[in-house]
Amino acid sequence: MPLLEFTAKGIYCKQADVYLDPWRGVDKAIISHGHSDHARWGSKHYITHEVNVPIIQHRLGRVSVTGKKYGETFHHNGVQFSFHPAGHVPGSAQIRVEYKGEVWVFTGDYKTQIDGISAPFEPVRCHTFITECTFGLPVFQWDEPKIIHDSINQWWAKNHAEKTSSLLMGYSLGKIQRLLKHLDPSIGKIYTHGATEHMTQVLRQFIYFPETELITRDTTKKEVEGNLVLAPPAVLGSAWVKKLGRLSTGYASGWMAFRGARRRRAVDRAFVLSDHADWQGLLSAIKATGCENVITTHGYTDLFAQYLREQGWNARTEKTQYEAETPETAAAE
Amino acid sequence: MRRFAALIEQLDTTNKTNQKVAALANYFKEAPEEDALWAVALLSHRRPSRPITTALMRQWAAEVAQLPEWLFEESYHIVGDLAETIALLVQQDVVGSPPSLSQCIEEIIALKPQKEEEKKAYILNRWQSLDNFERFVFNKILTGGFRIGVSQKLMTRALSKAVDVDENILAHRLMGQWSPATTTFEELILDPKPEDQISQPYPFFLAYVLEDGFQEKEAVLDWHIEHKWDGMRAQLIVREGKLFLWSRGEELITDKFPELDCLAEILPNGSVVDGELLPYKDNIIGDFNALQKRMGRKTVSSKLQKDIPIVIMLYDLLEWEEKDVRILPLAKRQELLTALYKKTKGEGVPLLLSEVLHFSSWKEVAKERDRAQQMRSEGLMLKHKDSPYAVGRKKGTWWKWKSDPKTIDAVLTYAMRGHGRRTNLYTDYTFALWQGEELVTFAKAYSGLTDAEIKQVDQFVKKNTTYRFGPVRQVKPELVFEIAFEGIAASSRHKSGVAVRFPRILRWRHDKKIADANRLEDLKQLLP
Q1: Are strands B480-485 and B406-417 parallel, antiparallel or unpaired?
Q2: Do B372 and B391 reside in the same domain of the chain?
Q3: How much is the ipTM here?
Q4: B384, B402, B420: which is the final residue of a domain?
Q5: What is the mean pLDDT of chain A?
């Protein structure tokens, strides 16, 4: 019997009778991180890394959540569980599962780059590695984050000099805070959209960020001019944006590596910055686990598994309901 | 190269015409003239001939990236653009510095006669000396098809701003076959010599699709009405005893139509006419496929000339007695053209005059339009009697009023990922009709759906794939679409036995089940 099975409700550990990131309501859910396709509504009890506790409660309301530290072990019916940094977003964890000497690791989502706000990815030795592969294609090769952050600050500074505001868009949980952390506040003021401000406030108890100010009804165009606004991509084309006055728009996502996606998004500047591992990142993570078996869950799963098989791993694909982002859904958060 | 790549990147990041024009004008002003000239050439689809096959480029790229070929191909299908796929896959630390644009293209031209290993060494070296986007642009130059959302008109406008020469004059100077390898910025753009220009065509004037409500606003008597002949638009030039024939795509096609050579003596020097090339035998206009057959041949045999003789149906007069007469009102040009036609008319002269039709009401015009198929035309042209022969597409004075397309309901059977802006979405579809219990492919169509509909169909394709081969997915037959097309002809090259022209999606028939789709016989009934 495999230690973890893929069922209609999620990834299931029969021995412990718990689910990992289930997509339907269950009694006990162990959660890798706070994104909505992994921490889903409807379960009776959630166990997760402690940083995720306020995130999950912010998203799902008053649900029962237990927080754990990285490396802290806990047991269910003889099965040992622990969380290990996944480097994806603050609080994100790989879930290590051990029973009678057999070790499986489920990554949730992860990246091997260091982003300055999440605990850096730590490889965990295991027999079976269940991995995401959102960007599991060799065309994805990320630049050093510093290069991207520098170009964002240069873009902002140039806009500032031209009395144009900069609208910088990205995911509300993780990406926006990563961007914020590396903005240069000496250029100007940093404003936020409601959705991004709330999540940032939740994370301020754990991480230091530059100051932000929420855009309200009373905020005038004049105040915003030359400054930077952080917002989710859904605002593009909305009335909210029109209130901001003269704008240059920027969007940070791994998908911006594709020229077609950049042109479709029709933003002024595209920044290739992802919270997922790129091709080399995925391969190096897998190697570092020393695993024999790989199960790919979301992204370019079939192609990636085929490549891994050719490289000597016992790799296969399992269907899950984690939303493999695509260039189309990347903006539809 | 660096400057040119930066320009392309800039053009990519804006949808605003003014910003595009400004970026281009800026480039033309700042770049060295030889680079600017190559930029003009590339943006008007003149590129150096391809020194290597794309198959080799793929192979080398897979090698550099240390990837199995299948993974390279899959990546290409997902990225949707070969130049970009290679640029992304062969990322490496940049070594050396990029050449200028003109230098780079000279290198590409010089590469053509070289041996394969020399070509490979050069290409691999260049890939390494360029950054990501420069490498993409370099690959684009190599593979051709420089489509980046900049029309020739836009480019001409920007160039006009940069060099301060009237846009229409520039459009004329940029016409025809020229290459930066044999001319200079000065000679071509700034100060051309008249003697270099005897083959130079004028920019074609193009019509818009007729707008709704046109007839209510306009008096029928103000309009010159003729059939829209279904052949190939062309411009015929006779200067200094020589004849030149240009296609609308600015290709010199004189050699393809030797039966027109006699016109060099029949038409007076300094004449330029606009007309339609048509197959014409025994006083009957032939069909478009016959003309295509001739265009497809490298050499034109006398048998082919005999089987499919060609005439030029005259529409307009652009140059008369060595003078540019495009500014004269159409009625005046037509008078001159008619006189010229009458004077030259004779046995075996391959000229016809497109007849100007006279009507007293729009109702009569509509009736004539219904006769289009019978007349072997595509519909009618409406041109204002006072209109000059303008440049490019300008709204208001020339309209095309085509016959209504024929339509048929067909089933979606295969889908393929799109390219460019539509990369990653399934946007290219194959449609089938019933033959007995079987669905037989009859057409492919790429356009006609809204962005929202494309997304829905894309979702359907991803969820209902029954078989995949490379970029193509076979899908469960379930969706029915109304397909419109212009013409139809029997064809032995198509499995269905029928070839349709310009197939496109008219609408998604949510109300129809696949059993309600048309049969192949229904389509065949439409054959003339």
Answers
A1: antiparallel
A2: yes
A3: 0.92
A4: B402
A5: 93
